[in-house]
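Ops channel
N.P.: pipeline sanity check, posting one input/output pair.
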């Protein structure tokens, strides 16, 4: 596939998102790569992987657990709740900055999507309703067990763990954090009117279902400054067997409550043709980042149009960045894009992680193949 962005394309213009100056409006979407150590320390290759992609306006990292209990959806995902995790994230942030990029760490609690064989602890959720799905554990593919419904005092601890993880991320040198409120994980579970069956102040009305996400956003903003905080939401997305009969009201309540904080950005994972996007977009006065999700093929033509019209401030792109470390250069030149190899999305090691070639590497390889010395061999 190829797509050429004109030199005056909206997506190539710089943008200020909160405290961060992004060189362009094509952000790298968060991508779990399952290469962290078993204790959640980011992979020794993570600094190289992210630095290779520093051409993104903002790199949003893979989902990163805020506690041991927050982990458990997949094997070898990173955390940011120990000194060791923080030290490794500091290496990653420094490598990205040295390469001229910016980086937000995505903060994650998986809730009922966790498996005790991965996290080592019981899974928790708004209500004791299991997700009808499976995950790969050390002993193979397993169904997810029913979680335990959280006590109110535990919910306050989780808010505090998000706050503490954000502090660690910024102390490690990250430009900011993205709170993961999407894709069927804990915050999305609370927002849902189906899997959240609570009867206390965290369930029932849209305001109550939005309460946990709002409290997390407020606590993290108070800790590191709202200008360093992004939030990702995916209204109506069915990832992780999440269901929502009403995919607007809780988000409306959420955005009405947090819009005035002045966050760096709101990140929608949604098909822009979805009426929920139209309804919710108008409630947000700050920067809007859009990722069109896995069901819709990323169309740079459509994203450029939306950016040009001012519907979105920036686009977040996942698989194209995974396979093209120099994606921005390729879009500027209209060069052929490398295809992502799904078999190495979550496999260990450098293959499919740090070895996707740049245009410069490809042309070097083809020059050396056709050099007189090579031809003589
Ligand atoms: C390998 C892989 C890992 C992903 N991991 C995350 C993640 O950690 N956090 C998240 O919010 N979304 C995650 N996603 C979703 C992506 O951010 C994005 O929404 C999706 O890939 C669709 O965008 P694309 O078509 O540009 O790839 C992941 C997607 C893929 C393919």
């Amino acid at each position: 596939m190829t797509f050429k962005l004109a030199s005056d394309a909206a997506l190539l213009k710089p943008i200020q998102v909160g405290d961060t100056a992004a060189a362009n409006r094509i952000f790298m979407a968060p991508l779990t790569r399952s290469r962290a150590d078993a204790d959640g320390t980011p992979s020794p290759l993570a600094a190289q992987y992210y630095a290779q992609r520093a051409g993104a306006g903002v790199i949003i990292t893979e989902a990163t657990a805020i506690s041991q209990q927050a982990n458990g959806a997949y094997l070898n995902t990173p955390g940011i709740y120990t000194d060791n995790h923080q030290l490794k994230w500091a290496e990653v942030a420094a490598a990205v900055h040295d390469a001229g990029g910016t980086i937000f760490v995505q903060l994650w609690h998986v809730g009922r999507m966790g498996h005790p064989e991965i996290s080592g602890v019981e899974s928790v959720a708004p209500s004791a309703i299991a997700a009808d799905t499976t995950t790969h554990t050390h002993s193979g593919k397993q169904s997810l067990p029913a979680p335990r419904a959280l006590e109110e005092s535990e919910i306050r601890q989780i808010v505090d763990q998000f706050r503490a993880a954000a502090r660690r991320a910024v102390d490690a040198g990250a430009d900011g954090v993205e709170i993961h409120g999407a894709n069927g994980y804990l915050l999305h579970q609370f927002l849902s009117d189906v899997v959240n069956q609570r009867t206390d102040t965290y369930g029932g009305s849209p305001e109550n279902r939005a309460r946990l996400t709002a409290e997390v956003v407020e606590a993290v903003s108070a800790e590191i400054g709202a200008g360093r905080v992004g939030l990702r939401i995916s209204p109506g997305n069915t990832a992780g067997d999440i269901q929502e009969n009403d995919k607007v009201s809780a988000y409306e309540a959420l955005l009405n409550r947090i819009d005035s904080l002045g966050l760096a950005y709101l990140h929608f994972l949604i098909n822009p043709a979805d009426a929920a996007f139209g309804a919710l977009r108008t409630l947000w006065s700050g920067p809007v980042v859009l990722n069109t999700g896995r069901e819709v093929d990323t169309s740079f033509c459509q994203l450029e149009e939306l950016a040009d019209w001012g519907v979105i401030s920036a686009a977040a792109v996942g698989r194209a960045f995974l396979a093209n470390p120099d994606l921005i250069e390729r879009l500027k030149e209209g060069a052929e894009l490398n295809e992502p190899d799904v078999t190495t999305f979550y496999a260990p090691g450098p293959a499919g992680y740090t070895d996707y070639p740049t245009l410069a590497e490809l042309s070097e390889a083809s020059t050396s193949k056709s050099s007189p010395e090579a031809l003589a061999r």
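N.P.: looks fine end to end. The chain has one domain: 10-376.
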